Amino acid sequence: MVDSTPPTRRFRRERLEIMAVLPGSALPRLRVLLCAPRGFCAGVVRAIDAVERALQKYGPPVYVRHEIVGAIFVEELTQVPDGDRPVIFSAHGVPKSVPEEAANRKLFAIDATCPLVTKVHREAMVHAKRGREILLIGHTGHPETIGTMGQLPAGSVTLIETAEDARKIQPKNPEALAYVTQTTLSVDDTAEMVAILKERFPAITGPHKEDICYATTNRQEAVKNVAPQVEAMIVVGAPNSSNSQRLREVAERSGCRATALVQRADDIDWNVFGNVKSLGITAGASAPEVLVEEIIDAFAKRYDVEVDTYAGPQEDVFFPLPRELRDTAAE
Ligand code: SF4
Predict the structure, then answer these.
(1) Contact indicator for 88, 62 with CB cutoff of 8 Å
(2) Which atom of ligand 1 lies nearest, measured to the CA of 43?
(3) Mutate to test the pocket of ligand 1, among 117, 144, 209 (most ligand atoms within 8 A of CB)
(4) For 272-311, what is the HEC assignment?
(5) Residue 41 CB less than 6 A away from ligand 1
(6) Which range of residues forms the domain containing residue 178?
(7) Residues of the chain with pLDDT under 70
């Protein structure tokens, strides 16, 4: 599913409708390099489509457990009243206890968990069935981590957050050990942790194909290519978005002197970004393109902006809607 097309180093001039700058304008020049791919991934598109289709098919209200594109609907099923209203589980996935609770309460649940997260859930369950102790490389408290750990009884999965954790972990039986990972991690940090685990426990079993998803990998790759060519980088995304946070870190490590994760143009700190000559812009997997345009417009009010796009791997991943909604999609 990962697009392995090598990123080209060609740049494409964007024709964006940004504020026109009159010849002779006193505005300082700014070269903006847009990272591509950026923004929505196939899992988020599917979750958003699921909400739209559910509204179309069943009418409002539709409840969404957890967050889709920055809009928090409900955090727990206790906030969903009994009845036949659809409740949609977000792309992050949920612990097994959540669909169980929904079934007990006879709620109409629609699971929009990203298929690439479901793949990780399945891997963890197969390892458990084969008697392996499971390590999950991921971030404490992230909804995806909670969902993956919650596929198995409490205490079955040990979380590894850092290289230090990988160095210290003392499994009960190193011969029956496996690891899975969160889908939205830093590719480089994860590779380091996996290398440590493999060195310490050569018999450890890992995924056949990386758990870090194609969207996370491609967006980080694009940032790695753009960051050395710009002074500063803005990542459009929510502060609690793991893949967006990782993009900012990748930009920082790749040499940008200023980096920021912002949700809206109002979040831009002009003390930092008010005096740059080149700027990279990318967006996390749940950030809509309209917000990227808002950021460019904000810069165009202060600079004479020229926008180019770094053309990285093409993405053509598509996931069909949850089964309950497919007939609506066909209409
Ligand atoms: S970031 Fe990756 S795993 Fe998460 S929803 Fe998007 S495609 Fe799926």
Answers:
(1) yes
(2) 5
(3) 117
(4) HHCCCCEEEEEECCCCCHHHHHHHHHHHHCCCEEEEEEEE
(5) yes
(6) 115-212
(7) 1-25, 67-74, 328-331
Which residue's C-alpha comes closest to atom 5 of ligand 1?
43
Q: What is the pLDDT of residue 67?
A: 67
Q: How many other C-beta atoms can be found within 10 angstroms of the C-beta atom of residue 206?
A: 19
Residues 6+ apart with CB under 8 A from 163: 189, 192, 193, 196
| Model pLDDT, residue 192 | 98
pLDDT at 25: 62
> Can you say whether the dihedral through the CA atoms of 150, 151, 154, 159 is positive or negative?
negative
Decide if 68 is inside a domain.
Answer: yes
**At 136, which CATH number?**
3.40.1010.20
CATH of residue 98's domain is 3.40.50.11270
What confidence score (pLDDT) does residue 328 get?
54
Task: Give the pLDDT of residue 61.
Answer: 87
The domain boundary, picked from 185, 212, 239, lies at: 212
- How many structural domains compose the chain? 3
Same domain, 221 and 301: yes
Q: Which residue has the tokens 């404490």?
A: 140
97 and 123 inside one domain: no
- Catalytic residue status for 221: no
| Owner of token pair 């928090």 | 72
Going from the Cα of 40 to the center of ligand 1, the distance in angstroms, rounded, reads 9
Distance 199 CA to ligand 1 centre (A): 29
Separation of alpha carbons 92 and 145, rounded Å: 9
Going from the C-alpha of 238 to that of each of 39, 57, 82, the distances in angstroms are 12, 29, 31
Is residue 98 domain-shared with residue 125, that is, in the same domain?
no
pLDDT of residue 329: 53
Q: Is residue 9 part of a domain?
A: no
**Cα 66 to middle of ligand 1, angstroms:** 15
Give the residue whose CA is nearest to atom 7 of ligand 1. Answer: 43
pLDDT value at position 87? 92
